[in-house]
Amino acid sequence: MSAILLALSLLGSAPATRPAVDRPDVVRPMDPWVFRCVLDGEPRRLVVALSDQCFMSYDLDRCVLDKMWVPAEDGGVELTGTVYDHRHGPQPSSRGTIVYEVGDTDRWTLFRDGEPTELALRYVGHRDVRLGVQLHFEAEVDGKRLEIVEYIADIRAVHRRSIGVTAPEVRGTLRTPCGHELVLEADDGPTWLQLGRWMGETLFNREPEAEG
Questions:
Q1: Section 45-56 average pLDDT
Q2: What pLDDT does 186 receive?
Q3: Could you tell me the pTM of the whole model?
Q4: Burial label, 7 (beta-carbon count in 10 A; 0-12, 13-18, 19+)
Q5: Exposure check for the chain: N or C terminus, fewer CB within 10 A?
Q6: Which residue from 76, 56, 65, 49 is spatially nearest to 2, judged by alpha carbons?
């Protein structure tokens, strides 16, 4: 199910801890606000604490958005376990109302001449950028490199998800795990596709649109 078809029901605000370095008036609900952990019993998750209205986790094995949730009033993630509070057994868990979860069969797929090929993407890192964070993934298709950058941002309280794909030698149609499609053409730079944007209690139901 696509995240852009879901409505966010707000429960309240999680306590803010620090201003973000990307813009003085942006306050992230955790420090650090992007981190890896075992979450809800699932290994290799990357948590993005974007705002007091939106937490996300990514499955780094499949390179997909695993879930998105509105954090509880006392925080979006309970950090417990040996690394955090020296307790043996417990592990970090999400707290709040889940508004999106990925399906078991949702994958990155490349269609060439109508034939689907599941992409074996790998996570290569992330970096803080202005107003948000970029997640970097890559794959090889017949020895040719395909790069995907997912950009997650909080712009004037409007949350946005976009992907940029760079694959100058790969042709076909790329289907994202949430069902959007992007035609890969000859281009040295990334081709951008908006996956969704939402603000406050409303998730904007919009057709994907290209970004320059």
A1: 92
A2: 66
A3: 0.77
A4: exposed
A5: C
A6: 65
Distances (CA, A) of 22 to 27, 31, 37, 135, 140: 10, 14, 23, 16, 32
Q: Give the model's pLDDT for residue 106.
A: 86
> Which amino acid, 129?
V
The pLDDT score that the predictor gives to residue 111 is 95
Q: Residue 7 and residue 202: Cα distance in Å, rounded?
A: 6
Distance CA 204, CA 212 (A): 20
Is the pLDDT score of 191 beyond 60?
yes
Enter the tokens of residue 43. 């290994």
Q: Cα dist. 7→1, 54, 100, 148, 168 in Å?
A: 13, 12, 9, 27, 36
Beta strands in the chain (DSSP E): 18-19, 27-28, 34-39, 42-51, 54-59, 64-71, 77-78, 93-94, 96-101, 109-112, 115-118, 122-129, 132-141, 144-155, 158-166, 172-175, 181-184, 191-199, 202-203, 210-211
